[in-house]
Write a structure and sequence with these properties.
This protein is an alpha+beta fold and about 750 residues long. About 25% of the residues lie in helices and about 30% in strands. The chain is built from 17 helices and 39 strands. The strands form five sheets. Strands 10, 11, 12, 13, 14, 15, 16, 17, 18 and 19 form a ten-stranded antiparallel sheet that branches. A nine-stranded antiparallel sheet has the order 4-3-2-1-6-7-8-9-5, covered by helices on one side. A nine-stranded antiparallel sheet has the order 23-22-21-20-25-28-29-30-24, with helices on both faces. Helix 15 runs antiparallel to helix 16. The longest helix is centred in the first third of the chain and has 24 residues. The termini are far apart. About 5% of the residues have low confidence.
Length: about 750
C-alpha cells in the first residue's frame, strides 16, 4: 500500500513538473489558474515577447472562412505557404508585427458584460481574426515557440493617447488565450482591421515586382511581335545616366525612365490568383526583365493583352512574374465614365492639371493606381529627344558657321572672379561687326545655351543600325550640305595630376561637340522641315522651330544691350536737344557741380544737381530693347527728323599700361622677397609703385556719343521709339518708359 502511494505521488510530481515546463515554454504559467492579471497600460504580451518582432519567422492567420500560414525566408522576405505559395505583403507583415509589439491593455471588460446578447458588438466571435506568431526556440530552425496568440474583434469606440499629449490612436476589442483559458475581452491600443476587410487573400503582396531602384542596372523590354527588337537600357551606377544600348545606342530620357521604374515598383493588382486557376492568353504583350546589382537571377514580369471586364466596366489584363506561381489581374486602362456634356465638361476641368511628365507621374503615384497602357515601354517614349544634351555651365566657346557662304558667329567666355564680384563676360564676333570682338549680352548667351540643351526634338526620323552607314541617312535629310554647323567647346579640364613628371588632365573627354542643322524636304511628307544630327551619333532628328529660331549669325542678336556704358567721372558736357533750343550742361566731377545754358541764358541757378546726377546714372545703365540692322528702313525713316537727342562729351583716361605696371611691381616684389626683412621692404616698394601709378598723370582722349530718338507710331497699342548712335550709325529700339526717361527735366521751374 505504501509502495502504491509512493508511485502515485511520484507520477503526480512528474506530471506537475512536465506541465510547468510546457507552460514555461509558451512564456507563461497562467494556464494553471486559467487567467492572467493585466495591469492598465502594460504590453499585451509582456516586454520580453513584444521586443521580439524581428525574431518572428512564422505566423498563422485565420478568420471564419480561411486560414493561411506564412514563414520568413533567409533573405527576410515573407511567404504565404498555405493554401498556395506566394509572397506576403511586406506592408501587412510590418503592420501585424508592429501592432503585436506595441498593443497595450487599456481596459479589461468584466465577465458580466461578455454575454451572448452583446457579443456581436465586440466581434471576437462573430467577426474574429486569430493570429499566432512563433519564433525559433534556439535548438533548430524547425522547432518553433509561440510568442503571441490573440483573436481580434471589432474596433472599439474609444481613442487612446499616443503618448505625446497631442495625438490619439484607435483601439480594438481583443481576446487572448495565450495565458490560459481566459475568456475575458480586452480593449487594446491600435487597430489593424483594415488589413482583413477584403479577406485573407488580400494579405498577398499585390505588387508583382519587389526590387531596390538604386541597385537596378539593366532593363530589357521585349515586345510580343516577332519583327520588334528588344529594347535594352543600362546604367553603370545609381548616379550614372541611363543609356539605351539596343536596338540603337542613344541617350535615354532620365525623367521618363525613372518614372517607368517607379511605376513598375508601384503597379498593383486588383486580384491575385493561383496560376492553376487562370487560363492565360496564348501570346504575351510584353516581357520586362529587371537586373539588379548583386542579384544573379533577374526579375521578369510578363504582361498579357487587355480584356473587357463587363462586371467592373473596365479593361483589365493578366500578368505573371518568374518568382511567384500566381497570376495578377492588373488595371489596363482608366474607367470610362459616361456622363452628360455638362458633367463631362466639369470632369475635364477638374482632371489632372497640365504638368510635366515627372510631376504628372508623381500625381499618379499619389493615387496608387498604375495602368498598364500608361507604361512607357517603347523606344520613342524612352529615348532622349534632346539634340544637344549639354550642361550650359560647362561651355566656354561657341561657333555657328554657315558653310554655304562661310559666315560665322563666335562666342567666347571670359571667366569672372566670384571672390572679387567680377561677373563672367561673353565676347562675340560676327560677319557684320566692324571690330574684331564685342561684348555680348550675357543673358542672351545663357538663354541660348540653356535652350539648345533643353528644347527637345520633334521626333527621331532615322536611326543607323549596327553596321549601317549613317552618312547615307544624313544625306537623305540634307545634312551632308548643312545650313549651319554648331560647335560647342566644353571648359578645359580643371582636375589635373602629375604623372611621370607630366601635368595631365584626369578627364580626357573634353572634345568639342559638333552638330549639323539643315532645312530640307522631309522624305516622309514632302514638306520642308529642319533636321539635325550630332556628328558621331547614329540618329537624325526633326527639330522644333523653337530650336532653329535660336540660330542666328546677325551681330544685332548677340551684341551687349548696354547703350551708353561710360564712367561718370569722364563726363564733361551733356547736351539735351529738344529741337527748339538745346540745354547744354557742363559737369565738374571733382567739384560735383553743374553749370548750364539754355538759349544763351545762364541757367546754372536753376539746375537741380540731384536730378542731373540721377539722369547720368540712368543714362549709364540704359539698355536697348533690340538692336536693328544698319539699313532698317522703318528706323531710318523715323529718324530723318529726330524729335530728341542726347549728346555726351567724355574725356576717357587711358589705363592700357596700368596692368603691365602692376604685374611688373608684383614680380619685382617677389624677386626681392628672399627673407622676412627684404619681403617687407619689397612690399613697401610695391605699395609705393601702386600709389605712384594712381597719382600719375595719364593720357586722355575725347569721345562724343550722340543718341537720336524718334517715336515709331503714336497710334500703336504698345508705342516704342527708334534710336541711333550717330557716331557709329547703329540703330536700336527703346521701350517707351526708357525713352520717356531720357526727356526728363533737370531744371527747377
Amino acid at each position: 500500500m505504501r509502495l502504491l502511494r509512493t508511485i502515485v505521488l511520484f507520477l503526480l510530481a512528474a506530471g506537475a513538473i512536465s506541465l510547468c515546463a510546457v507552460l514555461a515554454t509558451d512564456g507563461n504559467l497562467a494556464r494553471v489558474t486559467g487567467w492572467y492579471h493585466f495591469d492598465e497600460g502594460m504590453p499585451l504580451f509582456g516586454r520580453e515577447n513584444s521586443a521580439r518582432p524581428d525574431d518572428v519567422t512564422w505566423m498563422r492567420i485565420a478568420d471564419l472562412h480561411d486560414t493561411i500560414e506564412c514563414e520568413r525566408d533567409d533573405a527576410g522576405n515573407w511567404w504565404i505557404i498555405k493554401p498556395f505559395r506566394d509572397r506576403m505583403s511586406p506592408a501587412a507583415v510590418r503592420e501585424i508585427l508592429r501592432f503585436t509589439a506595441e498593443a497595450k491593455v487599456l481596459e479589461t471588460l468584466p465577465n458580466n458584460r461578455t454575454t451572448r446578447r452583446n457579443m456581436r458588438e465586440y466581434g471576437v466571435e462573430t467577426n474574429p481574426v486569430t493570429i499566432t506568431l512563433k519564433v525559433p526556440d534556439g535548438e533548430g530552425k524547425d522547432e518553433l515557440t509561440a510568442v503571441a496568440r490573440y483573436t481580434l474583434g471589432n474596433a472599439s469606440p474609444w481613442l487612446a493617447d499616443a503618448g505625446n499629449g497631442e495625438d490619439v490612436i484607435p483601439t480594438t476589442y481583443l481576446r487572448t488565450d495565450f495565458y490560459g483559458r481566459d475568456k475575458r475581452i480586452h480593449v487594446v491600443s491600435g487597430n489593424i482591421q483594415k488589413l482583413f476587410k477584403d479577406g485573407l487573400e488580400a494579405l498577398r503582396d499585390p505588387h508583382p515586382l519587389l526590387f531596390d531602384p538604386d541597385s537596378l542596372r539593366d532593363i530589357t523590354i521585349t515586345p510580343a511581335e516577332e519583327s520588334a527588337k528588344p529594347l535594352h537600357l543600362r546604367r553603370l551606377s545609381s548616379e550614372a545616366a541611363w543609356t539605351i544600348t539596343a536596338p540603337v545606342i542613344t541617350a535615354a530620357d532620365e525623367d521618363k525612365v525613372n518614372t517607368l521604374v517607379q511605376n513598375l515598383m508601384n503597379i498593383a493588382a486588383v486580384r491575385v490568383d493561383d496560376a492553376a486557376d487562370i487560363t492565360l492568353p496564348a501570346a504575351p504583350l510584353y516581357r520586362i526583365q529587371l537586373q539588379c546589382e548583386g542579384s544573379d537571377t533577374p526579375q521578369e514580369i510578363t504582361l498579357y493583352p487587355a480584356f473587357e471586364d463587363a462586371e467592373a466596366e473596365q479593361r483589365l489584363c493578366y500578368a505573371t512574374v518568374n518568382n511567384r506561381p500566381v497570376v495578377f489581374t492588373l488595371q489596363a486602362a482608366r474607367k470610362v465614365h459616361r456622363k452628360g456634356s455638362y458633367a463631362a465638361l466639369l470632369n475635364a476641368a477638374t482632371e489632372l492639371p497640365v504638368l510635366p511628365d515627372k510631376a504628372l507621374a508623381q500625381v499618379r503615384m499619389s493615387r496608387s493606381t498604375i495602368y498598364t497602357d500608361e507604361l512607357d515601354l517603347t523606344l520613342p517614349a524612352l529615348r532622349s529627344l534632346r539634340l544637344a544634351d549639354i550642361d550650359p555651365k560647362d561651355i566656354s566657346r561657341v561657333a555657328l558657321v554657315s558653310p554655304a557662304n562661310g559666315a560665322s558667329l563666335r562666342l567666347r567666355l571670359i571667366p569672372g572672379d566670384a571672390d572679387n564680384q567680377v561677373e563672367d563676360t561673353w565676347l562675340y564676333s560676327a560677319p557684320q561687326q566692324s571690330r574684331r570682338h564685342g561684348t555680348a549680352e550675357n543673358a542672351t548667351v545663357r538663354n541660348f545655351l540653356k535652350s539648345i540643351s533643353s528644347i527637345p526634338a520633334e521626333e527621331v526620323v532615322a536611326d543607323a543600325l549596327p553596321g549601317e552607314d549613317i552618312r547615307t541617312l544624313r544625306a537623305l535629310y540634307g545634312l551632308d550640305r548643312p545650313t549651319y554647323l554648331l560647335f560647342l567647346q566644353p571648359n578645359p579640364c580643371a582636375v589635373r595630376a602629375t604623372i611621370f613628371g607630366q601635368d595631365l588632365p584626369l578627364v580626357k573627354d573634353r572634345r568639342p561637340r559638333t552638330f549639323a542643322v539643315s532645312r530640307a524636304q522631309n522624305p516622309a511628307t514632302g514638306k520642308l522641315a529642319w533636321f539635325g544630327a550630332e556628328l558621331g551619333s547614329d540618329s537624325v532628328c526633326r527639330l522644333s522651330p523653337k530650336f532653329t529660331r535660336l540660330l542666328s549669325l546677325r551681330a544685332e542678336k548677340w551684341k551687349n544691350r548696354s547703350l551708353a556704358d561710360f564712367p561718370i567721372s569722364s563726363v564733361r558736357r551733356l547736351t539735351l536737344d529738344y529741337q527748339e533750343a538745346p540745354l547744354v550742361l557742363d559737369y565738374d566731377y571733382i567739384g560735383e557741380s553743374w553749370t548750364g545754358k539754355l538759349k544763351d541764358e545762364d541757367v546754372t541757378p536753376r539746375i537741380n544737381p540731384h536730378r542731373a546726377e540721377h539722369y547720368l546714372r540712368r543714362l549709364q545703365k540704359l539698355k536697348v530693347a533690340q538692336w536693328l540692322e544698319a539699313d532698317d528702313p522703318d528706323a531710318l525713316a523715323a529718324l530723318e527728323k529726330p524729335v530728341f537727342a542726347v549728346k555726351l562729351e567724355l574725356e576717357i583716361t587711358d589705363y592700357s599700361d596700368a596692368e603691365a605696371t602692376v604685374i611688373e611691381a608684383q614680380e619685382s616684389a617677389a624677386a626681392e622677397g628672399s627673407d622676412a626683412e627684404s619681403m617687407l621692404s619689397a612690399a613697401d616698394a610695391e605699395d609705393q609703385r601702386l600709389r605712384d601709378l594712381a597719382l600719375a598723370e595719364r593720357r586722355t582722349h575725347a569721345e562724343t556719343r550722340t543718341l537720336q530718338i524718334s517715336p515709331s507710331d503714336y497710334d500703336s497699342d504698345t508705342p516704342y521709339f527708334y534710336g541711333r548712335l550717330v557716331e557709329t550709325g547703329e540703330l536700336f529700339i527703346l521701350n517707351f518708359e526708357d525713352a520717356q526717361g531720357l526727356a526728363g527735366d533737370m531744371l527747377d521751374m
